[in-house]
Amino acid sequence: MSKTCLVVDDSRVVRRAARAILEELAFEVTEAENGEVALEQCSAAMPDAILLDWNMPKADGPSFLRALRARPDGDEPKVIFCTTESDLDRISTAIEIGANEYIMKPFDSEIIKEKLSEVGLIDPN
User: Fold this and answer.
1) Best CA proximity match to 42, nearest among 27, 52, 56
2) Where in the sequence is 4-aspartylphosphate found (predicted)?
């Protein structure tokens, strides 16, 4: 069975780029434009991985992540923040509230591959 990844970003361009990379890595990809929609999707089917933007309308990345991790099954997905926020405070906040990894935009397939491998979702080879 293939692994699933939810890409949460308010930019359609970013979601498309991430989808292309993830599909190459044999992930089934779903998309959400904000944290509110992402939570609904997690209620319907919890993904193996979540690529999460920080700044979004309605529910931002940290709000979504706190709500996700508060759910009984919310510790299951590996969450990788994927953002332009490079401030060390932001990175440590992300890890404190439950992110597994953190990558900077713009990203490429090598970075995504490396992070998915680090969180144990793909074989590094």
Assistant:
1) 52
2) 53
Instruction: Give the model's confidence band at 88: pLDDT under 50 very low, under 70 low, under 90 confident, else very high.
Output: confident
Domains of the chain, residue spans: 4-118
Q: What does residue 117 show for φ and ψ, rounded to 5 degrees?
A: -70, -45
pLDDT tens for each residue of 19-45? 999 999 999 999 999 999 999 999 999
Give the architecture-level CATH label for domain 4-118.
3-Layer(aba) Sandwich (3.40)
Dump the DSSP string for 78-120: EEEEEES---HHHHHHHHHTT-SEEEESS--HHHHHHHHHHTT
C-alpha span between 55 and 15 (Å, rounded): 14
Question: Are residues 62 and 94 in contact, defined by beta-carbon separation less than 8 angstroms?
Answer: yes
- Give phi and psi for 105, each to the nearest 5: -85, 150
Residue type, 38: A
107's tokens: 């990203």
